[in-house]
Amino acid sequence: MFHAYGWIIVGFAITAAAYYLGFDSKLALHAFAYGGIGMMTIGMMARVTLGHTGRKVTQPPAVLKLCLPLLLTGSIIRVMMPMLLPEWHALWIGSAQVLWSAAFALFIAVYAPYLIRPRIDGRLG
Question: Which is more confidently placed, 63 or 2?
Answer without folding.
Answer: 63
